[in-house]
Structure formats: structure tokens, C-alpha cells
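Lab notes, practical 5.
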Amino acid sequence: MSAPRQRPPPATILLVLWLSTSSLAQTTPTATPRQATTPRAPATPSPSPSAAQGERLKFRLVGYPRKHNEGRIEVFYKGEWGTICDDDFSLANAQVLCRQLGFVAATGWAHSAKYGKGQGKIWLDNVLCNGGERSIEACKSRGWGSTDCTHDEDAGVVCKDERIPGFVDSNIIDVDENKVEEVRLRVVVGGAKKKMPVTEGVVEVKHKDSWSQICDLGWTAKNTRVVCGMLGFPHERKVNKKFYKLYLERQKHHFLVHSVACTGTEVHLAACPLEFTKPNATSCPGGMPAVVSCMPGPLFTLNSNVKKKLKISSTVRLKGGARVGEGRVEVLKNSEWGTVCDDRWSLQSASVVCRELGFGSAKEALTGARMGQGMGPIHMNEVRCAGQERSVWSCPFKNVTKEDCSHTEDAAVRCHVPYMGLEDSIRLTGGRTRYEGRVEILGPGPNRTHSWGLVCGESWGNKEVTVACRQLGLGYANQGLKETWYWDSSNVTEMVMSGVKCTGAEMALSQCQHHKVLSCQKTAAKFAAGVICSESASDLVLDAPVVQETVYIEDRPLHMLYCAAEEDCLSKTAASANWPYGHRRLLRFSSQIHNIGRSDFRPKAGRHSWVWHACHGHYHSMDIFTHYDLLNSNGSKVAEGHKASFCLEDSECHEGISKRYECANFGEQGITVGCWDMYRHDIDCQWIDITDVKPGNYILQIVINPNFEVAESDFTNNAMKCNCKYDGHRIWLHNCHTGDAFSEEAERRFEKYPGQLNNHIS
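Output from the prediction step:
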């Protein structure tokens, strides 16, 4: 799965080109990606009727935020500008349109009005190009003006930023000098300048490498809401205008924008109706610069008393993202977490999710499981938020049927988050690329100065690397290094932090537990911690229903367990058994382990260090791949087992995905994205030895990658639990679920479950 395309910086440049179909050369068709929007039953597509005799089509790219070579595609036909619907839209369509705009090719396309909703006509729908047509007129479609779409489905294109040589029609790009790109708050109160995040100040917009103000005449709370959302804040609050007026009237101002009239649902100020100040015109008579005050979410609130009052939604969460404020959207229904299908997924719906979670408006509404696929139910489809709702559950949506969606269509978001400056206090040195190197952090130095120092590598692991990569803005953890002598390119030699222990959820290393006083046995710089980060990561999840459906008990003769004993797959009392006579009682089940992440799961050790086990005739690529435990009501282990990675391979894959890993003939080991490794119940060590376990009620717990040897995008779903009843002869499992699949209340009920009084499970 490809890494997500980064949203370009906002802009409102307008590209308008007069085109003739004779000026374009044919090119090779390009493969078409999966259509993300809801399929409709279109009228039988036919070639688009040609424009009126002698009329030349005009095309333009518009919208926000964008660069000059991308945007909402609009076509001028019969004297009126109109959009193109995203139904059946493809990269092949984008290829034709980009060439008609004078660019050499297309690199992408966008659906669901990513660049904002157009107005007026929707000229084309169900457009089907093969990529080689000279004009969009030659592609099949419903015909001019025939559509069942709304402007929520306006299509956009991303063209390669390279013009067609000798393009005979006008290739002049008309640039609107007035555009809103970036927005910031300028702090005017002295004490607030040192506090992060900045929540109050004068609104300024960037213009030609300088910053200008906005006239506050007619300024409303809805305008403030949009600005706060862009800056990463979920809510606005009142501001003391009298104080600011006294302060600001003594200063000179340059007003670039006035008459801003947002509705409050926009995700960018450029989407709001506004006017630019004309040269030599009187600017903002009787007014002052617009000032706003924003309410940060709980994650960014330093005041503990305020933080207690702010509540993050308990029915929505983000999973699988590398950075704060991004991830796959999951919602809670009937005490079970499930995903959201991406049909009609829009920036407005994504913004409702973002604000509900304490972030600002949405930067991107991602489709096609761009943050990995979920497991379990899909709770919502065709979510249509207007943008002002307090919860995504308040938006219109459809329930999902099996025919509607699959987890390849899981929706995700990237939210605007406040600037905290955390990335300024960490850096990497000595690496081959910017994604790797020795970790250096900025800490207090002598004479009230700050200086760079190293982190002790002794307790350094993948959870710490996850936080470091997040703070650096470099994506997911790939690998942590406890020695970095080969990256010795810096003059920084002093250790300043040791004993770092993170949960993996922190935004910065300074938020993790660490020694108050430096305590590092090896203080030489070569033993400093290092990281390798990555834009994608694997994510392993155990299929809980498979475990529940395949469990049984076997009394296995000792003479068949010599190999298992050699690999330490039996309980300790087996050593004193009367070999080869007698038997061991084994709790057996199958394990189906899925990789739902965005990169392949590979063992940490290279094949040069794999251990050969002659008894079973295979290589172990990881010392411990899975823990199997039987716990009593107090959480104490009454029986345990472990499974080295006998052989990590692709047993089966989803449709359209090819197997890449196979253990035969010393082959490469791993699990491909979209595939799973099946450990059948009838292979050695796929069990827990319960010979010494008394009848009763227990919890079966299975943990994948228990020592976090291999980095993943999400460790919270690595454990699976089941309620278990054993009557001395038979065994039953029920309520099997991954560790993060239930609500907190349901999980508490599971932990306090008193057990079955009989063998009848309702």
C-alpha cells in the first residue's frame, strides 16, 4: 500500500485554459485505482456529445487548499462553468483532463469535493476514459448535464507539474495575487508568548512572504470557529476586545482581507466568502485587526483543572496513525468498536470527528484504508455531516450490509493539531537518511542556556522509538538501536537522559518516565540511543473467532512429545514424568494472525542469525513470537506456553494480493499486508499444557509479538482474551476478543465475569 500523499500547502491560484482537442497527443492509458465512492447504477454510458459546433471547451482548476497544478476540475460548456461528478472517476480520466489543461500527465485524483464544493451545473457524470483520449468529450459518460450527483461529489485532479512542450493553446497561468495561504495568531500579551500552544491573538494571513491583518468589521463567532479549527482547536471562546483595542490602536496595520463571512463549517479560511482590500482604498474604517481566542482540546491543555472539565468523546477514536490527530476512524456501538465505510466520506464529516476528539478541523478525509484495515464490524456507511454537529453519531448515515463495504474501504482522517514546538527539541544526527540517526534532545544547560545531549541506550525499545519518531514528525517506529558508534558524526557527547520508559502514546520523550538524576552504566557516546523511522508500519491482529471456534482438549502420549519437550512447549512438571509412558493434557486451538497494517511484518533478525531446529526441521526467526497463558480470576498464570516463530509465512491472502513469504527451502519469512499466517491446531506447540490445571473458570490470553521486538503501528491490539470454562473433561471458550475491541465498561464486565455455573453458554 502506498504511503499517503501529503496535502499540498493551501492556495487559491486559478488556472484557466482555452483548449482545442487537436492540440493534444495521445498517450498510453494508465491503470485505474479502486473507486472509493458509492457505486450507482448509471445510465448506459455513451460517448459524450460534442460541444456545440465551433464552441471550444474551457477547463480550469479551482478550490482550496491547493497548488497551481491541482484542484477541483471545472469545465465551461454552453456559457456556464460546471463540475464533474466523482462517480466512476479514475486516474485515466485525470490523465485526459490534465493533458487538456496543458500538463504532461496526471499523478492523482480526488473525490468527495476534497477541494471544496462547486456551484451551478454538474456537467458530467459516470465518465469512463481509457486514458488515451484526446478530449474528455471522447470518453463515455451520461452526457452533458445528465447526473444524479450533488456538489458533495465534485471530482478533482492532481497533474504532474510539467507543461506539454509546444502546447499550441494558451498555457499562461493566471495567478490571482490575492490569496489566503497560511493563518497564524500573533500574541500581544507578554506572558502568553512563552506558553504553548498559542490560543489567543491577532489573526494574521500570509501574503507575499509577509503577514497582514484582517479587518474585524462584521467579524463573527463563525469566522473564529473556522480560524480555530485551522489552528488545531475544537472550539472558540469570547475575547476581551476592549483590552486589545487599547493596545492595537497605537500600532500600524496592513489590512489584506475584510468582510469575512464564514458559515462555520468550512475547513479553511480560503473557503469562506471574503474580500481583499483594494490598493489605495481606505482600510477598515472604524475597525481594528480581528482577534480570536480558541479553546484547546484536553491533550493540549496544561491546566489540570480545565482539563478535567474537557471531555473527549468515548464513542469515537483514531487507530493506526503515526502522528497525533490522525488514524483510522472507529466508533463504538453496542459496546464494540467498529470502523466507518468511506462511501461519501468528506472533509465536513472528518472535521466533526476531529473536533469531537479535541482537535481542530480536518486536513484530509482519507479513503481506501489509508491508515490500515480494521477488524470486526463496520458500523457506519455514507456518513453525511454538515460540519456543525457535536458528534459523528448526530450525522445522517446508513447501516452497513455485507454487500456495501469491506475493510478495504475503512475511512480515516488527518486533523489540524496545535503547534506545540515539540519537534524543535529533538533531532537526529549521523544517519544515512533523515529518517535515521542518533537521538539528540535539547535540555537545560549551564547559565540558563539550553544545549543538546544524548539519550542512554540501555532501556531503549520500540515503544520509546515510537514516541521519538512521532516527536520528530517522521512517522512510525521501524527499529531502535542501543549502540550508535557507526553514527558518530556529531560533537555532542554528553548523556542527558536515561531510564526512558514510554507507553507509546506520548507526544514527546520528555512526557515519558525517565530518571530524575542521570543513571547510565555506559555513558560513552557510542552507547547513545538511535532510531530508524518509517512512513509505514505493520500491524498484527489475531482473529479471535477462529480461536473460539477451534478449541478442544487432547490427551497426547508422551512418546509423541519429545520434540515439543526439547523446544520447551510443556509445563515444568513434564520433566519429572515417566517418559515415554503416560500423557499430557493439551488445550489446543488454531491461531490466524492478520497483518492489517501498511507494511510487511518481518522478523527483527536476518536469516544469518536464524536458529535451526533439527527436531522439527525448521528455522526460528524470533525467539518468542506468541505467549499463550491461562489466567485465574486474580490475573495469575495457572498455565503458560510460548511459540517461537516456527515459520512466519503467508498462509492465505485477501483477493488480489499475492503471497510473498514462504518458509520452504530456507525462504524469506514474514507476513504480507492483507495476508495472514495460520497456525493450525494440530501442529506442535500450538497449545497450552493444562495437565496440572484444576477444573474452574479462567481467562485464556494470547499475546502476539509480546516483547515488542518488531515495531508495529499499534500494540494495543496485540492481545486477545477469552472467558474459559474447564470442567475437567471438556473446555468452552466465549467472549473472545482482541484487547481493544470492547468498550471500557464491557472490558470491566469481562474481567469481573464470575464464570459459568454450568456448561450452557447463552
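Observations recorded by the TA: Residues 1-44, 170-176, 757-762 have pLDDT under 50 and may be disordered. The CA atoms of residues 610 and 621 lie 5 Å apart.
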